[in-house]
Amino acid sequence: MDHKSKYFDKIRINKGRKKDSLPNKGICQWNGCESNGTHKAPLGRDREGQYLMFCINHVREYNKSYNYFSGLDDDAIAKFQKDSLTGNRPTWTMGVNRKDGMASPEDETGSVNRIKSSARMRAKMARAGVTHSSPRQRKLKTLEKKAIDSLDLPHTATEEQIRARYKELVKLLHPDANGGDRSSEDKLRKIIQSYKYLRQAGFC
After folding, report:
1. At what angle do helices 142-150 and 185-200 cross, to 10 degrees?
2. Strand partners, 53
3. pLDDT tens, 31-44?
4. Under a CB-based contact definition with an 8 Å cutoff, are residues 169 and 185 in contact?
5. pTM confidence score
């Protein structure tokens, strides 16, 4: 350590206090005890931050019989232990979020309902003859680009184009369509994997 450093002057060493210099906390709160109450003992659940003051002997007695869960049934204790794993904070299912911006741990069906309503809206638009003339606006990720490229499609391909191209390539490359020739089996496997990936990503 550099003793001439500008930071060294700012270090303060706490030499500690002698036991005699501890402030008197008052009389021990144990019934009939006249000793100094120098040790804190928690009051219990729902009274966090509140303490009784006991002498050393009585704080030991108190700690032997102290039970934080006193008065709770087994279900309440199990719930407390489960909640304590996350610091007693609420948790949310992944991908669940309310439209008003307020998420709820109980709202596990929210994302499913949104998917269903989105599908219903697309079906209504299709029945009304409304089509999306503009190409997909979302920026493609690397794996998505590779999957579309493997189907020999432009990056702006629609759901229908992806499905139609997949069916066409499967029929073309399947060994049954080639008299049992398995030379294109690897390419067929790649096409199937790409289509599965695009379907999971919501492209078709």
Report:
1. 130
2. 40
3. 889 888 888 888 87
4. no
5. 0.34
